[in-house]
Design a protein that fits this description.
The protein has about 180 residues and is an all-alpha fold. It has a domain of about 120 residues: Cytochrome c/b562 (Four Helix Bundle (Hemerythrin (Met), subunit A)), CATH 1.20.120.10. It has six helices and no strands. Helix 2 packs antiparallel against helix 6, helix 3 packs antiparallel against helix 5 and helix 5 packs antiparallel against helix 6. The termini are far apart. The structure holds heme C. Heme C (HEC) binds next to helix 2, helix 5 and helix 6.
């Protein structure tokens, strides 16, 4: 029982470390302020994915390696959006980050398969990269898109009620 527990803990530590190092690598160390929105990051991924697919179709191994690495090293969106997403998703955040890790790790393996010029691995891994994109989109895209489109959290809105007109003296007092 103790054994299983510590394995469990180690698994989560490893997962957390992985996510942290990804975040750090993408933000270039401790210096945050990466001004990209998630949408801008995604537009970059879209272009890289199109270029990657083309490279796969024409067996351009150097191109496959290049675009796979670009996808694996895509920048993170700005911290404010990351925080908003994690807070909103709460315990589902792990699934969201899992898709990102899937894209990252499949893309890294794909770059290696391109170096090794291994067609069978390339076809399988290119599909796996795309499965990570699709998976996250079908589960989260609309929801997160709507969340990020919301205006910045405003303080509790107090409805503005127009001041009721003062009753004119002697009128409608019912007496
Ligand atoms: C971890 C989740 C996740 C993964 C993985 C992911 N996306 Fe996205 N993607 C999103 C979310 C969330 C949005 C909505 C962003 C918004 O509307 O602000 C989005 C939006 C997009 C858009 C639409 C952008 C626009 O202009 O509206 C494209 C294109 C896109 N992603 C491509 C990709 C590609 C290609 C991959 C894989 C290489 C990928 N995404 C992987 C979550 C993900």
């Amino acid at each position: 029982m103790k054994y299983t527990n510590s394995l469990y803990i180690r698994f989560f530590q490893a997962l957390l470390l992985g996510v942290l190092s990804l975040t750090l690598a993408a933000s270039g160390g401790c210096k945050e302020e990466n001004p990209l929105t998630l949408k801008q990051v995604m537009n970059g991924l879209e272009k890289d994915m199109i270029a990657l697919n083309r490279a796969v179709y024409v067996q351009d191994f150097a191109g496959i390696e290049k675009y796979a690495r670009m996808i694996a090293q895509h920048p993170q969106p700005m911290k404010a959006q990351r925080k908003k997403i994690i807070k909103h998703l709460d315990e589902r955040a792990e699934r969201f980050q899992g898709y990102d890790l899937e894209v990252h790790s499949a893309a890294l393996q794909l770059a290696d398969a391109a170096l090794a010029q291994s067609p069978a691995q390339i076809s399988q891994l290119a599909l796996q990269v795309q499965a990570g994109c699709y998976g996250c989109h079908f589960e989260f895209q609309k929801e997160i898109s709507a969340l990020l489109a919301e205006p910045h959290a405003a303080p509790e809105a107090v409805p503005e009620t127009p001041a009721a007109p003062e009753p004119t003296p002697g009128e409608a007092t019912g007496e």
